[in-house]
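# nightly structure sweep
# worker-07 picked up a monomer target from the shared queue
# config: single-sequence mode, recycle default, output format = structure tokens
# input follows
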Amino acid sequence: MPPLVWGASPAWVGAIIFGLNGSQPEWNNIALFAVTIMLIQAITEFANSYVDRSEDKVYFTSNPLVTGELQVAIAKNAFIAENIIIAALVLALSIVTVNYPLMIVILAYWFAGIAYSLRPFKFKQTLAGPVFIALVSIPLPISGWLVVAPLNDFIIAFTGFFFLHSFGYGITHKFRKTYHALRDGIIQLEQGSSVYNLKNIDLGMKVKTALALEAIATLGAFCLVPVFWHLGIFGTDFSIALLALSLPFTVLSIVIRVKKPIENVQKGVMLMTISWALIILCFFAAALATLIPWGFAVLACIVFLIVFAFLLRTVHRFELKAVMSPWQEL
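# output follows
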């Protein structure tokens, strides 16, 4: 989990920097919040890997519960222990901060992360799956902001933008199982039928419908950027960064997958993941630019990416081929 926790951290770190707006931070509150939010991030991914341990023999064979690197009994005990620790941290955070909006967001984040994977909810196997993927993305910036400042137009606007894009990103991820199932013969395309009429696993909707919904959500998010810039909510530099860096990867992902929705699913997931990551890096860089020159903010993002690659390399060894196609099972 360390690469995943580190990879999403600019969203809440950037929000803290933005929310402080140059004021003196309360380091005790921020430190307690940081530990809490990172553990919830980890438990969300942990729950997903634990529940998927059987089907990942087909869909994601690098799952450590599939490879045998982690024993199921140990994973179960660790999962229970981590949830107990999170409960204690949330209680401590509520006592220290007496910040009810923050507590609501944190508890909602915790619930959404667990409900996505675990019964009796297990929303990941329903049409609500992409919604819950978005719901476990937006608490990162909004909770980071709330720990240091009340909500304002900027963070509300960014959260709305981020929710839409993350929802589309969630649909993108649902194509991967369909790709593996079709490749391995678990599902088959009816003779004479188009791949666009094939039903996506978990989503329960046709490929063409999912593609349309994904495009509307992700491109619709970027349509909000000039609106927020015109209203003076988004700064010019931040708006340009989002449109120039993240938008092209989103468009390219949609284009190649509309052309070949199943064959290009791996590349599509990779491109959409890059787009999602660039959004939070633009957010992080824009926050840092309120303290230091843009050049140093960009350099900090480069250092962040180097550390991410190191963590990923340590936890899951990969070759150049895997870097270029990280969702292709090798």
